[in-house]
Design goal:
Elements: E1 3-10, E2 15-22, H1 37-56, H2 63-76, E3 83-85, H3 87-98, E4 100-103, E5 106-111, E6 114-120, H4 125-128, E7 136-140, E8 143-144, H5 150-157, E9 164-170, E10 178-183, E11 185-188, E12 192-197, E13 200-205, H6 212-227, E14 234-238, H7 247-255, E15 262-267, E16 275-278, E17 290-294, H8 301-311, E18 316-319, E19 327-333, E20 339-348, E21 364-365, H9 414-423, E22 431-432
Parallel strand pairs: 2-19, 13-14, 14-17, 17-18, 18-21
Antiparallel strand pairs: 1-2, 3-20, 4-11, 5-6, 6-7, 7-8, 7-9, 9-10, 12-13, 15-16, 15-20, 19-20, 21-22
């Protein structure tokens, strides 16, 4: 049976979820274990309650919604990462993991109830039409966006490739609204952004979708060419506030910097289901020094990469403790009725560490200067702070979240500056937790 491994963002809890997608229909599984007589009696009780609600509730309920709610309640009672996805949620998840969709090419946010353009993506319908950062979208195909949430507005702007949509835009310096008609194209999300910082290459990885490894490889090649292989001091891999993504991409990103050895293993309650993933020969950076940045918002796939490079002593991990999302979920499609996301395993770093509810401690801890208005609000709960979370399974010690704050101004980013100093052989304002040579 072919399985596709994923690590997807769980929006409700702000953390990535290690996931295996199976093409087997849940209801037709041949390995199902016969339920006990007590279980059948409980199922009969469920049927009785369902029938009572269906016939006697004060208003006629939507029966399919009752069933979905019951399924979701059953799954969410297990742990924070098991859940039921209806058909739309399942489609949205697939779009997210593919990293491409039919759309306009604009990054948007919600501000004071209005949809505001963060930035147009280069060479897309929006950028070619002259849409600018800070434009406010007031109407989509003649319908006001007032009252819509961000997801609803985004859904209206996305659609089939070659279909058209008309936006009405209010621009600060323009007296009258601007109307633009755009034709949707295939938009690829850029999960990797590469930039030159003197003699250092910086690779910011924001998620792990199907485009991530290719983006990383292209970024490494471009930075090496722009800086020059002889002058290149090393790379910073910035995984801060990266909630996760596809497991195979996390493995490929780790493998990009390794020549040999285990990257990650997954272990369920059945020992025979253990899987181990190993690196292949070939380091894309030719052994250049690496610093990996993590913080309290780095989860799942980010932790797999950081853990693999840390255990192999291939990189120095710098920042604050990661989120601690170390469990694996299996996504089981239910025909046209959505999918079930079920926790089925824990994953382990090459040295055998389970980071579930513990996180990865950086080799070099560097705390940011937190603005007064954000103090106390900069820390994530971490996996250990989620009600009903899966236990570590080995080490009983659990730890809560850590700071996830990243200053918007790079010149005030102490973690990024410390990474540059480390690659230049200088250590400033950092505590060395693991005896990494100064």
């Amino acid at each position: 049976m072919r399985k596709l491994s994923l690590l997807i963002l769980g929006a409700a809890i702000g953390a990535g979820s290690a996931t295996v997608m199976s093409q087997t229909n849940l209801l037709s599984s041949t390995s199902a274990i016969a339920a006990s007589a007590d279980t059948y009696r409980q199922l009969s009780l469920f049927g009785d309650v369902f029938e009572k609600i269906r016939t006697d509730y004060v208003e006629k309920p939507e029966e399919s919604k009752l069933v979905e709610a019951a399924i979701n309640g059953m799954l969410t009672s297990l742990d924070p990462h098991s859940s039921y996805m209806d058909a739309k949620s399942f489609r949205d998840m697939q779009v997210q993991t593919r990293g491409e969709f039919g759309g306009l090419g604009i990054e948007v946010t919600m501000e004071d109830g209005l949809v505001k353009v963060v930035a147009p993506i280069d060479d897309t319908p929006a950028s070619r039409a002259g849409v600018l950062a800070n434009d406010v979208i007031t109407q989509i195909d003649g319908e006001s966006v007032q009252g819509l949430n961000l997801n609803q507005a985004v859904d209206k702007m996305r659609g089939p490739v070659n279909s058209s949509v008309t936006l009405k835009i209010q621009r600060k310096e323009a007296k009258d609204p601007i109307e633009v008609k755009l034709t949707r194209e295939t938009i690829k999300v850029r999960p990797v952004r590469a930039r030159v910082e003197g003699d250092i290459g910086v690779l910011r990885v924001t998620q792990f979708n199907e485009q991530t490894y290719d983006g990383l490889r292209s970024g490494i090649e471009k930075l090496t060419s722009d800086i020059g292989a002889d002058k290149l001091a090393g790379f910073v891999i910035d995984l801060r506030n990266n909630p996760g993504g596809l497991l195979d991409q996390a493995i490929m990103v780790s493998d990009a910097f390794l020549d040999r050895g285990e990257i990650v293993s997954t272990r369920s309650r059945n020992a025979e289901d253990t899987q181990r993933f190993n690196a292949k020969a070939g380091d894309l950076t030719k052994g250049k020094p690496l610093v990996v940045l993590v913080n309290g918002g780095s989860a799942s796939a980010s932790e797999i990469v950081a853990g693999a490079l840390q255990d192999h002593k291939r990189a120095t991990v710098l920042g604050t403790r990661s989120f601690g999302k170390g469990s694996v979920q299996t996504i089981i499609p239910l025909g046209g009725n959505g999918a079930v996301r079920l926790t089925t395993a824990r994953y382990y770093t090459p040295s055998g560490r389970s980071i579930q509810a513990k996180g990865i401690d950086p080799d070099v801890e560097v705390m940011q200067d937190i603005p007064d208005e954000l103090k106390g609000k900069d820390e994530t709960k971490g996996e250990a702070g989620l009600r009903g979370h899966l236990q570590n399974g080995g080490d009983k010690e659990e730890r809560g979240g850590s700071s996830a704050y990243v200053p918007p101004d790079p010149t005030k980013d102490k973690q990024l500056i410390a990474a540059y100093d480390l690659l230049h052989g200088v250590r400033k304002g950092a505590s060395n937790n693991t005896g990494v040579p100064n």
